[in-house]
Amino acid sequence: MPDRAPQPVDRQLPTAEARDLISLVRDIAQREIAPRAAEEEDAGRFPREVFTLLSESGLLGLPYDSEYGGGDQPYEVYLQVLEELAMARLTVGLGVSVHTLASYALAAYGAKEQQAEHLPAMLGGGLLGAYCLSEPSSGSDAASLRTKAVRDGDHWVITGTKAWITHGGIADFYTVMARTGEEGPRGITAFLVPGDAGGLGAAVPEKKMGMKGSPTAQIHLDGVRVSDARRIGEEGQGFAIALSALDGGRLGIAACAIGLAQAALDEALGYATERRQFGKPIADFQGLRFMLADMATQIEAGRALYLAAARLRDAGRPFAQQAAMAKLHCTDTAMRVTTDAVQILGGYGYTADFPAERYMREAKVLQIVEGTNQIQRMVIARHLAGPETR
């Protein structure tokens, strides 16, 4: 059966500019991303030229200030762009989300001089970023990180290893959290490390069950020297910066999850209406009709949830609880919907001739990144019932 382009989602967008932006993204997705997605994922090829095109099109800095090359778009719009990109290829949608996450520390906490010097290239100059918080021994317990930064005059010397870094080894800049003081969250500081810094290297990329086109690797910092002018925020403020970044990053993952789930639903629906058994399309069988109805309902609920959280963020209101809820619900939805899509396609769904099996493999990682879904439940419960008693 032929490949099918995702069906356009009927979006409620705030401005005519936003509608034009979505049209641009859909055009790029259909022309430049979707046609090569399966082949390149199978080959483990990262589409750097696509990210260059996205940068040239103004799509790598959408939620940031236009003074520095950003798009001045609200999160409500930016997240729907991510969803459209993820519908075409998750590697691209998630890559844009990670780049936005990596740019956040400087955009939100950097000094004006730092922003003027670095943000234009980061947001619209073709650069690609990576976010370095996790380590081999500190994932969910990020506050226990061991990477150290020691002051040496007007410079810092950073030593340690970061793990599970999206774009590790190919990024042009890394936002790195390192320990500069006491144990725990108050001793962590953020730094902007150039990708070509001496002493910075990447391990061989991880071999993953999905997202093979998106490199994930450990980053080794062996006495990397950066000037104090590349310290972001105050000393000891890094963990607060990291958590603030992750609130927005979780919404990015939620949007990507819904994009992936929508692609899986479109594939399953197209197959079910074309495939005939017992003299009629299998979409006529009530068992499959109910599956499709549940898939569509879960997707629509997830989209509404991440957009509600985005609108809180855009209004300057607290949104951390809602971001955790959106990440939890949307990624669980992606796992459920992609699994059901494989089931609807039957034996064909288990083959690489159809994208359903790739969608299912890719969905799993979304329940893990930006804080596992067990961590999201802890975050939500703390907002509801307060911190756990010690």
**How much of the sequence is in beta strands?**
5-15%
Q: Helical region count? A: 10
E-strand count: 10
Give the SSE string.
Answer: HHHHHEEEEEEEEHEEHHHH
Say what oligomer this is: single chain
Low-confidence stretches: 1-5
Average pLDDT: 96
Task: List key phrases describing it.
single chain; globular; 390 residues; four-stranded mixed sheet; four-stranded antiparallel sheet; 10 helices; 10 strands; alpha+beta
Describe the fold and architecture.
The protein is α+β, with helices and mostly antiparallel strands. It is built from 10 helices and 10 strands. The chain has helices at 16-43, 48-56, 75-88, 90-109, 112-124, 238-274, 286-314, 320-345, 356-366, 373-385; strands at residues 129-132, 148-152, 155-166, 173-179, 188-194, 200-202, 216-227, 231-232, 276-277, 280-281. The strands form 3 sheets. A 4-stranded mixed sheet has the order 1-4-5-8. A hairpin with an 8-residue loop joins strand 4 (173-179) and strand 5. Residues 1-5 have low confidence and may be disordered.
Tell me briefly what this model is:
Residues 236-384 form the Acyl-CoA dehydrogenase/oxidase C-terminal domain. By secondary structure, the protein is an alpha+beta fold.
List the helices and strands and how they pair.
Layout: H1 16-43, H2 48-56, H3 75-88, H4 90-109, H5 112-124, E1 129-132, E2 148-152, E3 155-166, E4 173-179, E5 188-194, E6 200-202, E7 216-227, E8 231-232, H6 238-274, E9 276-277, E10 280-281, H7 286-314, H8 320-345, H9 356-366, H10 373-385
Pfam families: Acyl-CoA_dh_1, Acyl-CoA_dh_M, Acyl-CoA_dh_N
Organism: Streptomyces griseoloalbus
Domain Acyl-CoA dehydrogenase/oxidase C-terminal: 236-384
